[in-house]
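Let's do one together. I've listed all components of the complex below, 543 residues spread over two lines.
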Amino acid sequence: MVNIEEHMTKARDLGLENDRVPVEYYTSAAYFRREQDMIFRRAWLMVGRVEDVAEPGDFIVRDVPPLKASVIIARGKDGKVRAFHNTCSHRGVALVCQDRGNALTFRCPYHAWIYRIDGSLSAIPAEQDFPHVDKAANGLAPIHLDTWAGFIFLNFADEPEATLPEFLAGLDTMLDGAPFDQFPFSIQVSDEIDCNWKNLVNAFNEGYHVAVLHNKTLRAAVVPKDNPHLHYLDIKQFGPHSAGTVPRNFDYDPQAPALTWVYAQMLPTSAPDVAAINEGRAGFYEHPGINRLKIPNFGTETITIFPNISIQPLANGYLFYQFWPMSEGRMRTDVRIYSRHAPRTLREEFAMASTLAATRDVVVEDMAMSRLQQIGFESGGKKYQQFGQNEPLLRMFTRDYEAYLAGGGMPRQPDKAEAAE
Amino acid sequence: MTEALTLPAGFEDLGQFAAVWGKLETQEQRYLQRQHGTMAELKAFYDATAPRLNAIFDHLDKFPMEALPPPEALLYRTALGLTEVAMAVEVFGQPCVPYAPFPHKMAIEWSELSPPLAPAGA
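Okay, and this is what the predicted structure of the assembly comes out as:
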């Protein structure tokens, strides 16, 4: 029997002494500009899944709000996935205007310069008037791209300071082979909120608030009697990334009629599929890097990928959250619920719509509180916010945030001279 | 949406709710409708539909999901209102999520893996 108390990792266990943090980090335009340059132009940023561009010619367009970047991600005829800035080499137009599609070429709607799916410049109308333009050197501007576990990451540095595996710092090894690809169907919910993006990062990095803020939505399902403040268990650090085990109540038995009916049609993403667990086919539950303690009432492993991702693997899929700063006081939250398949019946579709509404409302609670937090910060009565011993991941995030702003944070690379020796 | 508001036989009594919820095409619209409803309105809809989910879906099961006849499509859209109203009635005891801005819009997008499904999605 696991002694839960022993595994409630405290900040002191991790040597994290930064028990208060300047409010300025959350309210100052100067800090936001440093975040743009020192974090979002240096870290690897997750922007999608390989399933989003499954076939040659498939493309998606994504924006990266803190950098005001519009990005085309496309799978070439050679099967390789590439990323480009969505800007024409001629006069700069963001030439791809669809969110997604399948194409052999991209044609700028302004003067019809044409690019191949691999980004190379294929044709310039009236080419004789552009004798100074070398087509071979004027393709779409590429962005560094790599993938891990089917997730597409971009790096906006001219030369990344670290490879993606170096950046992931062992988190990738722990989760090697985790079955994200078994859950290709997603529903995305997005919202823009008047708050600093780190308010939401922090909300997903502690369970202390769950019994209070989520009293009506999550408490009965996830807060166990032996862990009333929902302390994350077995916290693991990988560079600036982390993972912590979160329990839930397996005996949770909703009595509300509509909710009960929904459970009978199709289990929500978050509900443990006891039959599947017993038969060893419960996806993430079987993975050795998840629930290392083997707690019997395992709920999820909250996985944080610096700077702005939270992933929660569950029995019937996983939840994905991304927090994008737009300014120091405004941000966008993207939530995706990943499932095994698209709804196959109206009953399943109804159940998935219900799960969507329920999941969204929990996130709305977090976003509502993050907005109130920002109002309080900006009122200016407090210079610091406090992080408890039971909020180690907030201290950890802040430590690594400060390291990035100071020019560090990334795994140190041997410089070229050392490497040559 | 130019369909007449006609529900399948046996569900005519849901007409007043179909006039509100059956017009809505997306989850975004249903979320907003829930926020603008009074608790009395939401409870009346809930009481009329939640106990009949089995009857509603037993009827809808007789039709191909991607080609519901207009009366069944109206019934289904009406029932989908319950995905939002149940949160207000069973969970919060109020139309809105506490402390959230009002009205609160959220963009929702179902992924385009086949089969594309219009009624609950985009």
